[in-house]
Design a protein that fits this description.
Strand 7 (186-194), helix 9 (197-214) and strand 8 form a beta-alpha-beta unit. This protein is of the alpha/beta class. An 8-stranded mixed β-sheet has the order 3-4-2-5-1-6-7-8, sandwiched between helices. The protein has one domain (3-289): P-loop containing nucleotide triphosphate hydrolases (Rossmann fold), CATH 3.40.50. It contains 13 helices and 8 strands. The structure holds adenosine-5'-triphosphate and magnesium ion (MG). The site of magnesium ion has 5 residues, from helix 2.
């Protein structure tokens, strides 16, 4: 660890001692292949959690491509990198989408870990102060598995892998699961754009079986559920709305809510050891320690 990272770690440690609301659950939503519905799931998962009374932050860590800002229909020209560089404060980049729902525009380039300015430390503490008030912090990682995505997967409380029934997406999902299982032995799967529930479960069982037969390390692959191919979803994304809001009684919303029920159940029944992973400042600390 370099001296700057060491200094930052000390400050974050101090902030942790001063903090008493260490409870933020970090969820990482990821996929092998792009375009499988991660941002659609992240935004609607966030919306469903907010409806249940939770305070939720959603962090767009995908590079380049406009993503969550489009879905939420907001404009951003600054992101977390600008905060880390000391060019603006976190308050200036956090976008309040609605009551209890905040978007943090991210940037997954490795530049984010080049701590250059002393201002960064102050900014990060501010960041963890705000983010520790959240119940859930959802990271839309973007597709593929670069070093930063791996770091997010390693330190998240729950990793959610998304795939679609397409054979190349399944192959890519499996390749991702293989690497992710080295980082986190609890993984969750959502099968998106299915014909029906049966297809989703069938794909889960196939992936789980291949994993069981081929992976050397232990892996608990939990099936969170499937979301059918839906005109409402496609239309909502075009209209820049979220189907869980615009069509709360649709099949898509029902399926998404079942996924949220399963996710909450999964979080409540985790092994006690993994429950220590629970605040943004701790999350940041874990990120820093791994560099
Ligand atoms: N269940 C579904 N039914 C119909 N269309 C869907 C469904 N899920 C996703 N889509 C469509 O697929 C497209 C990709 O979805 P989304 O942007 O959420 O994927 P992504 O995994 O975030 O992509 P990227 O890897 O580029 O970030 C969207 O335009 C959306 O219209
Ligand atoms: Mg996306």
């Amino acid at each position: 660890m370099n001296t700057q990272a060491q200094k930052l770690k000390e400050i974050v440690d101090k902030a942790n001692v001063e903090h008493n609301s260490l409870k933020t659950k970090v969820l990482a939503i990821t996929s092998g292949k792009g375009g499988v519905g991660k941002s659609m799931i992240a935004s609607n998962l966030a919306t469903s959690l907010v409806r249940r009374g939770y305070k939720v932050g959603i962090f767009d860590a995908s590079i380049g491509l406009a993503n969550l800002d489009i879905i939420f229909n907001v404009h951003t020209d600054k992101n977390l990198l600008n905060v880390l560089k000391g060019e603006c404060s976190l308050e200036e980049i956090v976008i309040k989408i609605e009551e209890n729902l905040f978007l943090i525009p991210g940037e997954s380039g490795s530049e984010i870990f080049n701590f250059e300015s002393h201002d960064i430390y102050r900014q990060l503490i501010e960041a963890s102060d705000f983010l520790d008030t959240l119940d859930y912090f959802i990271i839309d990682t973007g597709s593929g598995i670069n070093q930063n995505v791996q770091t997010f997967l390693e330190h998240a409380d729950e990793v959610i892998v998304v795939t679609i029934p397409d054979p190349t997406a399944i192959t890519d999902a499996y390749a991702l699961i293989k690497i992710a299982s080295l980082l986190n032995e609890n993984l969750n799967l959502i099968v998106n754009a299915t014909e029906n529930e049966k297809e989703g479960r069938f794909i889960y069982e196939r992936i789980a079986k291949v994993a069981e037969n081929n992976l050397e390390n232990p892996l608990f692959l939990n099936f969170l559920g499937s979301i059918d191919n839906s005109r409402i979803i496609a239309k909502s994304l075009k209209l820049r709305s979220r189907f869980t809001k615009s069509h709360p009684n649709s099949i898509a919303s029902y399926q998404l809510n079942e996924i949220v029920d399963n996710l909450i159940f999964q979080l409540e029944h985790q092994a006690p050891a993994s429950k220590q992973k629970n605040s943004f400042s701790l999350f940041f600390k874990r990120l820093i320690e791994s560099f």
